[in-house]
């Protein structure tokens, strides 16, 4: 795995951060989509768990990388039950990855423009901000649903750049999704960082396509902007 170093800080004016798997522990979402949703779907349809999981994976693969993949409204309508209510039921399991609170405090006091850029549905974003207080650490949050295009799409990056006015040549973007990082690279984002351990209950992945860290605090200490 190509270890991400931090010589880019003097050249970095803007920092864009994914939320799930980058700032927040992806263990919550993995349990939700790989255990709770297929179990509920299996009961509703009279299927075995394995059959329900296989069916869900097939349906999700059909919209992989598209905004529908991340849309609670789309899946609630398609599956026939309220996914937002299910998320609310288990909200106490939402938590930050280790060291993120201190890292964000250091980052946001460095004088750089910092924002969360997520594919999460607005209701999910609001829930996770309320549960974790992330909005108290990073005051600007943008979801792909605001722009009508997932982060995998060039339209997302064009819209976000227009909204924020950042310069891709002086921007750092961190995400656990390699497809999203590839999209950011095509847009010209100069500094990219993959998160190799998005879920605390899983081992780190081996990543070769991008500089990577197990967790964002490895990019610290963050010096003040020159």
Automatic annotation (TrEMBL):
InterPro entries: HAD-like_hydrolase_sf, HAD-like_sf, HAD-SF_hydro_IA, HAD_sf. Keywords: Hydrolase. CDD domains: HAD_like. It comes from the Bacteria. GO terms for molecular function: hydrolase activity. It holds the Pfam family Hydrolase. PANTHER family: GMP_IMP NUCLEOTIDASE YRFG, PHOSPHOGLYCOLATE PHOSPHATASE. This is Hydrolase of the HAD superfamily. It comes from Natronospira proteinivora.
């Amino acid at each position: 795995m190509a270890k991400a170093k931090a010589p880019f800080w003097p050249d970095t004016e803007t920092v864009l951060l994914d939320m799930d798997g980058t700032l927040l522990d992806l263990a919550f979402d993995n349990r939700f989509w790989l255990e709770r949703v297929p179990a509920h779907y299996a009961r509703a349809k009279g299927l075995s768990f394995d059959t329900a999981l296989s069916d869900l994976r097939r349906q999700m693969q059909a919209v992989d990388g598209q905004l529908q993949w991340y849309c609670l409204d789309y899946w609630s309508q398609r599956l026939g039950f309220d996914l937002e209510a299910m998320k609310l039921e288990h909200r106490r399991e939402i938590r930050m990855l280790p060291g993120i609170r201190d890292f964000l405090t250091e980052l946001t006091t460095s004088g750089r423009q910092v924002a969360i850029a997520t594919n999460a549905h607005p209701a999910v974003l609001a829930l996770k901000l309320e549960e974790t207080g992330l909005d108290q650490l990073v005051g600007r949050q943008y979801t792909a649903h605001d722009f009508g295009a997932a982060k995998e799409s060039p339209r997302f990056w064009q819209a976000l750049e227009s909204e924020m006015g950042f310069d891709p040549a002086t921007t750092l973007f961190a995400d656990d999704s390699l497809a999203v990082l590839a999209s950011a690279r095509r847009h010209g984002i100069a500094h990219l960082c993959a998160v190799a351990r998005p879920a605390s209950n899983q081992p780190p992945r081996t990543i070769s396509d991008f500089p990577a860290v197990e967790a964002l605090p490895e990019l610290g200490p963050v010096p003040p902007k020159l």
